[in-house]
DNA sequence: CATGCCGGGGC
DNA sequence: GCCCCGGCATG
């Protein structure tokens, strides 16, 4: 990480002073053409130096160390743009005297100026972008070029764009393409070492590490889904960055990998607008889920990365510690709405929050979460106390799915309680709550009451993987016993059917 | 296999 | 919203 950070923001094109080649002490000016890192290996402690390739006035290229250049002026970084040196003479003046040297200077600077005003929108255009990304946002160097305001604005707008993009399922992919593009072509420059002397096009590593993995195929045509393109990028963050305090990111990543497969519509039949996007922290043992990128970034930044400052000083690193998950809000809605009678059947009053006068009074209590945040369902007849409080959003998600269960309607008017434990004082009906349709991780999803926080992650995964086609026995209306239009009129008189029957819907004429 | 019905798509 | 159909569960 350090190594490439050293390059800091590019000073390419900057005018610098260099020791006179003649040795007469009179400094000469030149334009930085390239920067190299010396002894990159031993960079850890310090003593790492940059070597600047400088285009001299006379058109020759020379290399100077940082110190040499610094000796010539007050340092390369300051020399070019704003005021610089000690004598108070403006830069331009010195240039007048020193080097009104040719095109090189004028050529370089405009191009460099481009970088400064970089537009967050261009994040999706990675190839172009990488040329501008010379100014890495992850650089912790005194802001020589960009004023604080610039940075702030950049972050803010970027955050806004990110948020808006990732909130809408339709437009989610763009922000991710950054990584996708960078990981491909940009990788070569990044890992091949220092910048090549190829003038101003110095491809900068936007993220300070190069992708060692070959998982990212350089020319991914157009992956529509973001989850995959996310993945290869996150992996290098483990080995490459080394900034992971715990150093144990792998498990979560693995799980992430596993679950990310589930992101892309496992279900052939997809429902419209039924997905809500959430963001889940991938930090080990965290798994916090928030609804906005800003929120999750803030969470990671403050909680895990230990950065106190607000969103301003973000370097984007948070992006790699959360992922995007989709929640099937639709099924949630279904489940909730199923509490009210779906069909005209008079049977089985659902455990209805809206009707407190129900005789089965104590039952609704435990069932009435009043908000979905109440954790596990009491399931079939389990008279669990309502004590459990589940603060985490995960529980919210989970219990939502639990509500998919509907009250089965199969009740012969007599007594036989069809399902397990009866909890109702009356014997005329029973309401059985089924375990949530989610069955992925086996242990956690089972109706067990013992919910541990540590299992949140798998909870989430199971949620993600939960097929909307829930436990069909419940969600599906039980087949009616009586005759239906089809039977009554027969296929030949199909026009006499009720419309529902004609449409293969639940018969409206002969309801059970 | 016939039937009932859900989810979804086309218009 | 009307209409139809694929597909699934059930008997």
UniProtKB/TrEMBL annotation:
<keyword id="KW-0805">Transcription regulation</keyword>
<protein>
    <submittedName>
        <fullName>Zinc finger protein 704</fullName>
    </submittedName>
</protein>
<feature type="compositionally biased region" description="Pro residues">
    <location>
        <begin position="348"/>
        <end position="357"/>
    </location>
</feature>
<dbReference type="GO" id="GO:0000978">
    <property type="term" value="F:RNA polymerase II cis-regulatory region sequence-specific DNA binding"/>
</dbReference>
<dbReference type="GO" id="GO:0005634">
    <property type="term" value="C:nucleus"/>
</dbReference>
<dbReference type="InterPro" id="IPR013087">
    <property type="entry name" value="Znf_C2H2_type"/>
</dbReference>
<feature type="region of interest" description="Disordered">
    <location>
        <begin position="169"/>
        <end position="265"/>
    </location>
</feature>
<keyword id="KW-0863">Zinc-finger</keyword>
<feature type="region of interest" description="Disordered">
    <location>
        <begin position="67"/>
        <end position="152"/>
    </location>
</feature>
<feature type="compositionally biased region" description="Low complexity">
    <location>
        <begin position="338"/>
        <end position="347"/>
    </location>
</feature>
<keyword id="KW-0238">DNA-binding</keyword>
<keyword id="KW-0479">Metal-binding</keyword>
<feature type="region of interest" description="Disordered">
    <location>
        <begin position="454"/>
        <end position="475"/>
    </location>
</feature>
<dbReference type="InterPro" id="IPR031940">
    <property type="entry name" value="DUF4772"/>
</dbReference>
<keyword id="KW-0862">Zinc</keyword>
<dbReference type="GO" id="GO:0006357">
    <property type="term" value="P:regulation of transcription by RNA polymerase II"/>
</dbReference>
<feature type="region of interest" description="Disordered">
    <location>
        <begin position="338"/>
        <end position="389"/>
    </location>
</feature>
<dbReference type="Pfam" id="PF15997">
    <property type="entry name" value="DUF4772"/>
</dbReference>
<feature type="compositionally biased region" description="Basic and acidic residues">
    <location>
        <begin position="364"/>
        <end position="379"/>
    </location>
</feature>
<dbReference type="InterPro" id="IPR052253">
    <property type="entry name" value="CR1/CR2-DNA-binding_regulator"/>
</dbReference>
<keyword id="KW-0804">Transcription</keyword>
<dbReference type="GO" id="GO:0008270">
    <property type="term" value="F:zinc ion binding"/>
</dbReference>
<feature type="compositionally biased region" description="Polar residues">
    <location>
        <begin position="454"/>
        <end position="474"/>
    </location>
</feature>
<feature type="compositionally biased region" description="Low complexity">
    <location>
        <begin position="191"/>
        <end position="213"/>
    </location>
</feature>
<keyword id="KW-0539">Nucleus</keyword>
<feature type="compositionally biased region" description="Basic and acidic residues">
    <location>
        <begin position="106"/>
        <end position="122"/>
    </location>
</feature>
<feature type="domain" description="C2H2-type">
    <location>
        <begin position="279"/>
        <end position="309"/>
    </location>
</feature>
<dbReference type="GO" id="GO:0003700">
    <property type="term" value="F:DNA-binding transcription factor activity"/>
</dbReference>
């Amino acid at each position: 990480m350090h190594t490439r950070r050293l390059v800091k923001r590019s000073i390419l094109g900057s005018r610098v002073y260099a020791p006179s080649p003649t040795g007469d002490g009179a400094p000469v000016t030149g334009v930085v053409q390239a920067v190299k890192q010396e002894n990159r290996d031993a960079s850890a402690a310090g003593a790492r130096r940059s070597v600047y390739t400088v285009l001299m006035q006379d058109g020759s290229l020379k290399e100077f160390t940082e110190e040499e250049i610094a000796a010539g002026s007050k340092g390369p970084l300051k020399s070019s743009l704003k005021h610089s040196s000690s004598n108070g003479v403006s830069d331009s003046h010195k240039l007048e005297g020193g080097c009104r040297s040719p095109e090189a200077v004028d050529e370089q600077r405009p191009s460099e100026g481009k970088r400064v005003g970089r537009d967050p929108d261009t994040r999706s255009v990675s190839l172009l972008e990488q040329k501008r990304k010379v100014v890495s946002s992850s650089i912790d160097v005194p802001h020589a070029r960009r004023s604080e305001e610039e940075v702030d604005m950049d972050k803010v707008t970027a955050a806004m764009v990110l948020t808006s993009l990732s909130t809408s399922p339709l437009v989610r992919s763009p922000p991710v393409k950054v990584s996708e593009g960078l990981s491909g072509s940009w990788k070569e420059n990044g890992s091949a070492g220092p910048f090549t002397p190829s003038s101003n096009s110095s491809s900068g590593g936007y993220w300070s590490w190069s992708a060692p993995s070959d998982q990212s195929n350089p020319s991914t045509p157009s992956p529509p889904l973001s989850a995959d393109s996310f993945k290869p990028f996150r992996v290098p963050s483990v080995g490459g960055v080394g900034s992971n305090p715990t150093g144990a990111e792998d498990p979560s990543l693995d799980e992430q990998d596993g679950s990310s497969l589930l992101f892309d519509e496992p279900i052939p039949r997809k429902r419209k607008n039924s997905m809500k996007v959430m963001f889940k922290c991938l930090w080990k043992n965290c798994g916090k889920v928030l609804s906005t990128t800003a929120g999750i970034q803030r969470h990671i930044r403050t909680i895990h990365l230990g950065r106190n400052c607000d969103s301003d000083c973000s370097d984007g690193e948070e992006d790699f510690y959360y992922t995007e998950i989709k929640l099937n809000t639709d099924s949630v809605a279904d489940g909730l709405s199923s509490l009210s009678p779906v069909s005209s059947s008079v049977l089985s009053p659902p455990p209805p929050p809206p009707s407190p006068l129900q005789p089965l009074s104590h039952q609704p209590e435990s069932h009435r979460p009043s908000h979905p945040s109440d954790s596990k369902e009491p399931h079939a007849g389990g008279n669990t106390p309502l004590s459990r409080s589940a603060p985490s959003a995960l529980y919210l998600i989970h219990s939502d799915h639990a509500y998919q269960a509907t009250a089965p309607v199969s009740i012969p008017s007599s007594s036989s309680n069809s399902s397990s434990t009866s909890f109702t004082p009356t014997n005329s009906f029973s309401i059985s709550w089924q375990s949530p349709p989610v069955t992925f991780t086996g242990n956690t999803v089972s109706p067990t009451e013992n919910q541990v926080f540590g299992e949140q992650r798998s909870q989430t995964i199971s949620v993600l993987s939960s097929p909307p086609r829930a436990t069909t026995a419940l969600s599906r209306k039980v087949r009616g016993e009586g005759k239906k239009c089809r039977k009554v009129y027969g296929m030949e008189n199909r026009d006499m059917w009720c419309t529902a029957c004609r449409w293969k819907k639940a018969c409206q004429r002969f309801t059970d």
